[in-house]
Amino acid sequence: MFFQKPRWYRLLPSEVSTLCRKACGPLEKYRKSAGIEHDVFSAMVAASGPVVIANLLRSDRTISQLERTLPETDRWAKVVRLRLERKLSHVALETPNSWLRGALRELQFTRFGSFLEMAQYAVEVEAREAGFDRENAEKVSEIIESNQ
């Protein structure tokens, strides 16, 4: 028997839906129990820690291939800077976002000691930008992590 994936899942970009395939059932069960709309839940999944980290890893690999002589710490800062610039270009069309601009300025003086430190920073920025309920966002991340 064929079951169609929920609407929130079909709204995800393919690289995100692939990462969350095994977690689709538990995530849908949680979405229903928490009463979260499909559009909001799709954005919540896309902004979850595991998805953000997977995207950061992909960006880090790409930049390291393109700029082989760039030191690790500079590469990590560049990964986050490019992510923030992309977000800023999208939200600038809708509404000015001063805290996002501030995060981009602050990044000029930030040096990450490890990939994990950079990833934690990016996940925090993502959570703040998205404005999701912290408890729901943590539960979504937990479900994805436990079903990979």
Topology:
Elements: H1 7-10, H2 14-20, H3 24-34, H4 38-46, H5 49-66, H6 72-91, H7 98-107, H8 115-130, H9 134-146
Helix pairs in contact: 3-9, 5-6, 5-8, 6-7
Could you name the key traits of this structure?
mainly alpha, 9 helices, 73% helix, 148 residues, globular
Report on the structure:
The chain has two domains: 7-47 and 133-146, no CATH class; 68-130. The chain is globular and about 50 Å long. The chain is built from nine helices and no strands. Helix 3 (24-34) runs antiparallel to helix 9 (134-146) and helix 5 (49-66) packs across helix 8. The chain is an all-alpha fold.
Q: Based on helices, strands and strand pairing, what is the structural class?
A: mainly alpha
Rg calc: 16 Å
**Quaternary status:** single chain
Mean model confidence by pLDDT? 85
Share of residues in helices: over 70%
Straight-line N-to-C gap: 24 Å
Number of helices: 9
DSSP E strands, number:
0
Largest sheet, if any?
none
Shape: globular
How would you spell out the order of helices and strands? HHHHHHHHH
SS strand fraction:
under 5%
Low-confidence stretches: none
Number of domains: 2
